[in-house]
Amino acid sequence: MIVITGPSGVGKGTLIRTLLDRLPGLRLSVSATTRAPRPGEQDGREYHFLTSSEFDRRLARGDFLEHATYAGNRYGTLRSEVEGEGIVVLEIEVEGARQVRAAQPDAMQVFIAPPSLEALRERLIGRGADSSDTIEARLTAAEAELAAKHEFGHVIVNDRLEQAVEELATLVGTMDTPQP
Questions:
Q1: Is the pTM value of this prediction over 0.70?
Q2: Hey, which of 54, 59, 146, 177 has its CA 20 to 30 A from 166?
Q3: Biggest distance spanned by C-alpha atoms of the chain
C-alpha cells in the first residue's frame, strides 16, 4: 500500500495519474466523500459520492479503513477498495494517512508539498473549482498539514511535475511492484 498525502491543490492527483501510467501494476483506491461532485466528476471514478447518512451507516458498519473531515466535507477509504492483489495507491488527507499508519504500519507514506504557500494559492485559484472562502479554508488547512510533513517517511516537493513524478516512481520502484 502506498499512501500519498499533502495539501489540497498540491498536485497529488496529477502525480498519481502519471505514476499509474508509468507503472500499470499499481491500482488506485477510489475514496468516498460527502461533497458534491464537481463538473465532469463521475460516481465511482473520481469518488464514491455518498450522502451524510450513507457515510454514517457505512462508518458504523466498519466499512472504512480511514476517514476524516476536510474543508467541511467527509472523506474516507472503503476497505473494499484496498482488498485484493497488488499494490494499491491511496490519495488521502493527512488525518486519514495517520489512521492508515496506525492500522497498516508497513504502508509506504509519501507527503507531497508545494514549493510555497503562494504557489499553492495560485494552483487552487487556477483550478477554478472552489469559492474564495473555500480556497482560504484549504490554505488554512494546508498550513497545519505542512507542519506535519515530518511525520511521513518521504517528502516530495512538487515544483516541477516531471521531477516529482521521477522521485515518486523511484520510491515506488523500491517496492515489489506487480507486473500487469
A1: yes
A2: 146
A3: 44
